[in-house]
Write a structure and sequence with these properties.
Elements: E1 2-8, H1 12-25, E2 32-35, H2 40-46, H3 52-60, E3 63-68, H4 84-93, E4 98-104, H5 117-120, E5 124-130, E6 140-144, E7 150-154, H6 160-175, E8 180-185, H7 191-204, E9 211-216, H8 217-226, E10 233-236, H9 238-251, E11 259-263, E12 269-273, H10 290-304, H11 307-322, H12 336-346
Parallel strand pairs: 1-2, 1-3, 3-12, 5-10, 8-9, 8-10
Antiparallel strand pairs: 4-5, 4-11, 6-7, 11-12
This protein binds 3-isopropylmalic acid (IPM) and magnesium ion.
């Protein structure tokens, strides 16, 4: 169980520290942790947000626990040197194409959701976001038009095999849940989405038990706050998934609670909270480490098949929340380390 720990920038290190304490507390003697530099801190130390040494560690490990990257002090850098390239580079380099972003309301947090409690209570969904394609990785740039105006462009595209493999992940996940899959696209406007929809329909033939529906992304954004209980599994492209998963996080109370897994065709997986580096609160003991602790649970489940340990961690987090342990993001006053202590005590 070789796990790379890439804590990164901002609140990344402090939330990752708590997740590592939780992992270590399980006393798994096969567990080996290897640290590496990513993001702005890596750029400052080595001149690159994803140094070769870090990539080497990633390739040598079974799983990666990733904190967060991003630093306003790097906004002036050329794009390929910006901290975000660390996570984008790892996703691409390791073929991490399937991003699982579950969102479920913890009991007792109804009042913290941006939605009315009776609506928030319905939320138990899984967003499956494609992570290797779309406008994220298409040709991009800023060019000068013949008349001298600057033009920015980012090419959106999906090849059918890219859609097919993420569709399979979606259908399989639905089979393990309530057997409903909603594919989100913008097929009324985008050709990329038309192909996406056609391929998802083709794949659906292999999963006759799953009820497949299609929704335009604008409508999906609306339905997610109007009647989120209608969703079981959502499968969507990189950009739409990025946006909808942040939205889903607020519906369950806080972005400080949402974990994610990024999986490849092979065995490697990367686990990270869906929140960012939040430089404004970094180093102040204000960050909620629960999303990262829950990411560690996903790591044990998806990379090592340690379901019992994953459930133990999730139960410890749920019990801390039920006992009123609340980070600042949830309107409480528990600090990062105190939340880690509370989870450890329940573990
Ligand atoms: C996420 C983040 C990243 C993304 C950024 C940091 C590049 O927002 O994981 O959702 O856009 O994918
Ligand atoms: Mg995002």
């Amino acid at each position: 169980m070789k796990v790379a720990v890439f804590a990164g920038d901002g609140i990344g290190p402090e939330v990752t520290r708590e997740a590592v304490r939780v992992l270590q507390a399980l006393g798994l003697n096969e567990l080996e942790l290897v640290e590496g530099d990513v993001g702005a801190m890596a750029w400052r130390k080595h001149g690159h947000p994803l140094p070769a040494a870090t990539l080497e560690i990633a390739h040598a490990c079974d799983a990666i626990l990733f904190g967060a990257v991003g630093d306003f002090g790097c906004d002036h850098l050329e794009r390929h040197l910006r901290p975000e390239q660390a996570i984008l580079g790892l996703r691409k380099e390791l073929g991490l194409f399937a991003n699982l972003r579950p969102a479920k309301l913890f009991e007792g947090l109804e009042d913290l959701s941006s939605l009315r409690p009776e609506i928030a209570r319905q939320i138990d969904l899984l967003i499956i976001r494609e992570l290797n394609g779309d406008v994220y990785f298409g040709e991009k740039g800023i060019r000068i038009l013949p008349d001298g105006r600057r033009q920015g462009y980012d090419l959106m595209s999906y090849a059918e095999d890219e859609v097919r493999r993420i569709a399979h992940v979606g259908f399989k996940a639905a089979m393990g849940r309530r057997k409903q899959l909603c594919s989100v696209d913008k097929a009324n406007v985008l050709e990329t989405s038309q192909l996406w929809r056609d391929v998802v329909i083709e794949v659906s033939g292999e999963y006759p038990e799953v009820e497949l529906s299609h929704m335009y992304v604008d409508n999906a954004a609306m339905q997610l706050v109007k009647a989120p209980g209608q969703f079981d599994v959502i499968v969507t492209g990189n950009l739409f998934g990025d946006i909808l998963s942040d939205q889903a996080s607020m519906c369950v109370g806080s972005i400080g609670l949402l974990a994610s897994a990024a999986l490849a065709e092979g065995t490697i997986g990367l686990y990270e909270p869906i929140h960012g580096s939040a430089p404004d609160i970094a180093g102040k003991d204000l960050a909620n480490p629960m999303a990262q602790i829950l990411s560690a649970a996903m790591l044990l489940r998806h990379s090592f098949g340690k379901e019992a340990e994953a459930v133990r961690i999730e139960a410890a987090v749920a019990s801390a929340l039920a006992d009123g342990i609340r980070g600042h993001d949830l309107g409480g006053s528990h600090g990062t380390a105190a939340i880690g202590d509370a989870v450890l005590a329940r573990l």
